[in-house]
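Q: For a teaching session next week I want to show students how multiple molecules come together into a single three-dimensional assembly. I've collected the sequence lines for a complex. Could you give me the predicted structure tokens for the whole thing so I can convert them for display?
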Amino acid sequence: MFTITVLAFQYQREKSYKRARLENTLDNITEITDKFIRENHLLEDNHVSDLADLISILPETNPRITVISKEGKVLYDSFVKDYSSMENHYNRPEIMRARANGSGANIRTSATTSQEFYYYARLFPHYYIRAALVFDVTVKDFLKTSTQFITFMVVLFLVIGLILVLVTIKLSYTITKLKDFAVRAGSNELVAFDTKFPANELGIISGQIIQIYNNLKKTKDDLSTEKEKLFNHLDALDEGIAFFSPQKVMTLSNGKFIEMVNLFSKKEVVSATEMLESSSFKKLHSFLSAYLETDAVDLESRVPKLDYTVSKEEKYFRIYSIIFADRSFEVVVTDVTRLEKRRLMKQQLTSNIAHELKTPLSSIRGYLETILENWPIPEEKQKYFLEKAFFQSERLTALINDISLINNIEDAGELFEMKQVDIKKITNDVYEYFSSKIEHNKIEFIDEVKLNTVINGNESLLFSVFQNLVENSINYGGQGIRIHIKCYHRDERYFYFSYSDTGGGIPKEHLPRIFERFYRVDKGRSRVTGGTGLGLAIVKNAIHLHNGRVSVKNRPKGGVEFLFSLSIK
Ligand code: ADP
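A: Of course. Below is the structure for the complete assembly, covering every listed component.
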């Protein structure tokens, strides 16, 4: 295309060059003709036809010369014999132009010869002289005459074309590779792209692009693994956690968060705005408003935190929030019911313990005071009060022992040494321990636990379990009862025991609370027997430490039955 354009341009130049040359020639001819007419007085003498003599000696082959009067009448025409009858030439384009500018030209096909003529007219003082020559600048002729030029052009463009093709091949290799890379990167199926690029600028750029892409991809992959870890971590958390944009739109949260928020709002909450409007979040809401709605606070230097606890239907939630430097924020909701209940329980327990300790202490003090204030007192009375004080001090010791035992089981269970223990040996020891009381109360003691009922446990705790149960039966069951211990079942993991007596049993309404610390059915009676109210609590905790469960029920025929399991391993 470029070659054709150049040739066309060259053709046009050739054409206009020929035109200029032709015009120059024709101008000369008109000049010569004018001179010839004037010098030979052809017009005055009416010898215009003598112009043929001039034409014959002109170097140009067969020029057409026309002499036209100022009015347009043809005075002579070298091509037409009967020129006097020719039509008026006043309006011929070349004449009109000559009238306006002194000279004018026009190219048109002659009606007489059907050849293309170049007409050139010039205005002289008394007439126009028009000269015309065949205008033969055709493409064919041009091509014919310019073969050398065309050959040169074609060869030149072939060479340039070849160079272009070579350069393009080189460039397109890199570009094709880059395209392949882009397509694969676009569809994300890229694992590693290690094509070698040529060592040119494009190759270096491509190499760099791929390097940057690979780095980005690696970072992205690393990030998504980290993100996944974070998500899994968030989901595994016991806390509800959510992140919000500064516009209070939730950007990330775990399942627990939605669950918890819905727990303490009346209607179903799905959006963050709804959540913040719920009454439990009032404090959070005003905290956020204080920091998010003004630009005055500089969040770069300090991180505002909010931490408070709300309670909802016997449950306690700790709400914790941090506002980050970009004004996005995090809300963490933790169910602290257990902790809170434990805290309250501990509080209650402490006051219970204080109360329980106070009773024997003030008794001891009372007895000692009586002795001192009434000194000297008869020896018998002295002994009586001292015995009473001693009994209370025993009670105090028992109480303190029980309290510290129960605390140890609860807080430092792992400190109890576990080893293979035969339950039969324990029950035997307990029987030994209470034998005189058992005899005294005429209690029938039936122990059906078989030898080699071996579990992995702590000897002294297991002893406490049976000791407390038997002691209670002795203390609350009354005389002539029967105590029955048996291991009624075993499976792969547990031994299942039943401990029962045939005493008075425990009133139904007290059963659910019987394992609580310091819980007694009959406070007065318990005090007489020296019970601390901790016996069954110890039983329960010790069984739990052996991965077992304990429950209690009244026997249909009277008396209580404790059912419990103890883990073998
Ligand atoms: P305590 O040290 O007062 O005996 P426990 O925790 O051992 O405390 O027992 C709690 C209460 O359960 C006792 O006060 C008693 O009223 C009742 N109790 C426990 N065992 C028996 C039983 N075998 N028969 C009847 N009542 C019992």
